[in-house]
């Protein structure tokens, strides 16, 4: 009976400070992970952006100005206008050029037929038909559409990679912001554990 009385009169153990410290230390680990992720994403964003700019600038493409787009649709002109006269260095410029300049000219030349359609028509011709003026014109159109489709594909790849770089940049900002907010909570949690 005396043992029960003695044990009941002792001060109860307060586990709250220990729990606060444990949660805060776990939060600190997450802060480090977020900082590392943010650094990796920032590097990826910078690397991709530099590669896209370097590869596109090597092509020496200047975005078309008003006189070069005069015969295009209003939609195509509006898409190209913000970049008029600029050297192509960004994914956004590459997409505008591919979708609103090259494609517009390809569609105008082929009556909106694709390379696959024109190539099928050309391949269906006999050797004698290919030798005619119309056959040679169809062959030249086929070659033009092939080159246009290839260039569009390359430019749209640059756009896709450029977009991934932009997304990685935003993700880096988010990771750094989350790390800062969590670091504040870690600090408050450790301070609270000392007071408790």
Shape: elongated
> Which stretches are low in confidence, meaning pLDDT under 50 for 5 or more residues running?
none
Number of helices: 7
Query: Cα distance, first to last residue?
Result: 33 Å
Number of strands: 0
The helix content is: over 70%
Label the structural class: mainly alpha
Report the portion of residues in β strands: under 5%
Can you summarize the main beta sheet?
none
In total, the number of domains comes to 1
Task: Tell me the layout of helices and strands.
Blueprint: H1 2-9, H2 16-58, H3 74-80, H4 91-110, H5 115-124, H6 127-131, H7 133-195
Supply the key terms.
elongated, 0% strand, mainly alpha, 80% helix, 196 residues
What does this structure look like?
The chain is mainly alpha-helical and 196 residues long. It has one domain (16-195). It is built from seven helices and no strands. The protein has helices at 2-9, 16-58, 74-80, 91-110, 115-124, 127-131, 133-195. Helix 3 (74-80) packs antiparallel against helix 4 and helix 4 (91-110) runs antiparallel to helix 7 (133-195). The longest helix is centred in the C-terminal third of the chain and has 63 residues, at 133-195. The chain is elongated.
């Amino acid at each position: 009976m005396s043992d029960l009385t003695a044990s009941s009169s002792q001060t109860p153990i307060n586990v709250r400070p220990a729990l606060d410290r444990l949660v805060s230390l776990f939060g600190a680990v997450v802060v480090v992970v977020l900082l590392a992720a943010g650094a990796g994403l920032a590097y990826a964003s910078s690397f991709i952006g530099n590669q896209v700019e370097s590869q596109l600038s090597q092509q020496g493409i200047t975005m078309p100005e008003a006189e070069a787009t005069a015969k295009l649709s209003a939609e195509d002109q509006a898409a190209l206008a913000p970049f008029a006269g600029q050297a192509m260095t960004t994914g956004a410029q590459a997409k505008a050029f591919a979708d609103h300049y090259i494609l517009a000219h390809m569609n105008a030349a082929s009556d909106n037929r694709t390379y696959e359609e024109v190539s099928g028509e050309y391949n269906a011709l006999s050797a004698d038909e290919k030798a005619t003026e119309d056959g040679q014109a169809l062959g030249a159109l086929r070659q033009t559409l092939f080159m246009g489709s290839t260039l569009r594909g390359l430019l749209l790849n640059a756009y896709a990679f450029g977009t991934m770089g932009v997304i990685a940049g935003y993700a880096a900002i988010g990771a750094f912001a989350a790390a800062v907010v969590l670091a504040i909570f870690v600090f408050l949690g450790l301070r609270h554990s000392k007071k408790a």
